[in-house]
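Anyone up for a design puzzle?
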C-alpha cells in the first residue's frame, strides 16, 4: 500500500474536480464505522464529496444523506417485511445514482444483501467497489465468495481469518484490523462510574445490554428482567441497563408491557458501565465484541421469532452465535439460544460466573488474548488508504 502523502498527491493531480464517493452504511454500526472512514479519507483526499445511505454520525462528518439508514435497518428475515418497501425504494435510488450520476468509487459497509446487489450494478457500470466490513460468508452462503470476487474490486476485512477465505477467488482482500479497537475503551474508573450514576459501590454490578433494535429488545429484555430479579434476590448485586442510542425509554416500556424493570437505566455511557460491571448479559451482535474488548465476562443471548430462527438454522453453518466465540473458534463465554433463553437459565449462567472466581479470571484472560487477535488498531485509516488508492 502506498504512503498517505503519495496517495494524496496523486489524487490532487488527477484533475480539478472533486472526487465523488457513493457510500452505503445501512445499519447503526455501519454508520459509526463509516463516519470514521470518511474522516480518515478526508485527511488523505481533502477534495472528496461523499453522499449515500447513512445515519447521524455520517451526517455529522459531512456526508450528504440520500437515504436515512434508520428507515431501512432491519432485524431477522420476517421482521424485515415491515421495512421492505423502504428498502426497495432506497435500492432503486442508489441504483439510479450509479446509472445517471456515476461516482468515482462505491464504498459498501456491511448490510450484505442490499450491498451485494448494488455491487453488481456498480460492476456493470464500471464503478470501482470497495467493501469495508465484508459480508459474513464464513457464517452462511460461502458459495458467495466468488460472486463477491466478481463484483468487488477490493475488500478491507476486519476479522483475522477472513482474508484467507478469499484466497484463490481473485478478490483482493486485506485484513485491516477491527474498527472497534479504536473506539471501545473506558474513560473512567469503576468508582467514578458508580458515583456518577448513583450506584452502590458495595454491590456487584451486572450490565444488561438487550440490543439496539426495537424488535430485538422486545424478544430479549423481558427475559433479562426476569433473570435480573432472580440475581437481585442474592442481595449482593445491582443491575443497570445500558440503553443503546437507537432506543428510548418508550421502547423499554413497550417491551416490558407494564412490568417493572429491576434495573437502573442509563443512556450514553455503555462502555464505562460495562467496564464497571462484574459481568454483562448481552444480546448477540456487535455488543458482544464490545464487551469482549472491555475484557468483561458475559452471557450471550440470541432470541428471535420462531419462524425467523427456523429459517436461520437452515442457512447458518457456524458452531457459535456470539462474535467472541466465533473469532476464538471455541466457547470463551456461555451462549443461550432461542428456547434456552429463559429467566432461570440466564440467572444460573450469570450466577456461575459471579460465584466462580477462577472461571471469571480465566475468562477475562481469554478475552484479553482475543483483543490481541484483532489487530493493532487503525482500521478506518487503513481502509481509507485503500479508498484513496482507488480514487487515485
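Challenge accepted. My sequence:
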Amino acid at each position: 500500500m502506498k504512503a498517505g502523502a503519495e496517495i494524496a498527491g496523486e489524487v490532487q493531480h488527477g484533475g480539478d474536480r472533486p472526487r465523488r464517493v457513493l457510500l452505503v452504511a445501512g445499519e447503526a454500526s455501519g454508520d459509526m464505522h463509516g463516519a470514521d472512514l470518511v474522516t480518515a479519507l478526508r485527511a488523505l483526499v481533502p477534495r472528496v464529496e461523499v453522499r449515500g445511505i447513512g445515519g447521524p454520525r455520517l451526517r455529522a462528518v459531512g456526508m450528504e444523506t440520500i437515504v436515512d439508514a434508520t428507515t431501512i435497518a432491519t432485524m431477522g428475515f420476517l421482521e424485515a417485511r415491515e421495512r421492505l418497501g423502504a428498502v426497495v425504494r432506497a435500492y432503486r435510488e442508489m441504483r439510479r445514482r450509479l446509472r445517471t450520476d456515476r461516482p468515482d468509487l462505491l464504498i459498501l459497509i456491511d448490510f450484505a444483501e442490499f450491498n451485494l446487489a448494488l455491487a453488481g450494478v456498480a460492476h456493470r457500470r464500471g464503478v470501482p467497489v470497495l467493501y469495508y466490513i465484508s459480508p459474513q460468508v464464513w457464517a452462511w452462503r460461502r458459495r458467495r465468495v466468488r460472486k463477491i470476487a466478481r463484483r468487488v474490486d477490493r475488500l478491507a476485512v476486519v476479522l483475522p481469518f477472513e482474508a484467507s477465505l478469499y484466497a484463490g477467488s481473485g478478490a483482493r482482500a486485506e485484513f485491516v484490523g477491527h474498527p472497534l479497537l479504536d473506539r471501545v475503551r473506558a474513560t473512567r474508573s469503576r468508582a467514578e462510574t458508580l458515583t456518577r450514576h448513583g450506584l452502590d459501590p458495595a454491590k456487584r454490578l451486572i450490565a444488561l445490554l438487550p440490543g439496539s433494535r426495537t424488535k430485538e429488545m422486545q424478544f430479549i429484555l423481558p427475559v433479562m428482567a426476569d433473570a435480573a430479579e432472580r440475581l437481585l434476590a442474592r442481595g449482593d448485586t445491582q443491575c443497570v441497563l445500558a440503553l443503546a442510542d437507537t432506543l428510548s425509554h418508550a421502547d423499554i416500556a413497550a417491551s416490558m408491557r407494564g412490568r417493572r424493570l429491576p434495573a437502573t437505566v442509563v443512556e450514553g455511557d455503555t462502555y464505562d458501565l460495562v467496564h464497571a460491571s462484574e459481568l454483562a448479559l448481552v444480546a448477540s451482535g456487535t455488543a458482544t465484541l464490545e464487551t469482549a474488548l472491555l475484557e468483561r465476562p458475559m452471557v450471550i443471548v440470541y432470541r428471535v421469532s420462531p419462524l425467523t430462527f427456523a429459517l436461520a438454522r437452515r442457512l447458518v453453518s457456524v458452531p457459535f452465535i456470539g462474535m467472541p466465540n466465533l473469532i476464538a473458534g471455541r466457547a470463551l463465554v456461555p451462549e443461550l439460544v432461542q428456547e434456552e433463553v429463559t429467566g432461570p437459565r440466564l440467572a444460573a449462567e450469570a450466577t456461575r460466573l459471579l460465584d466462580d472466581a477462577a472461571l471469571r479470571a480465566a475468562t477475562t484472560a481469554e478475552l484479553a488474548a482475543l483483543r490481541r487477535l484483532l489487530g493493532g488498531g487503525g482500521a478506518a485509516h487503513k481502509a481509507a488508504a485503500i479508498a484513496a488508492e482507488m480514487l487515485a
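A detail worth pointing out: The chain has two domains: 4-178+375-391, 190-373.
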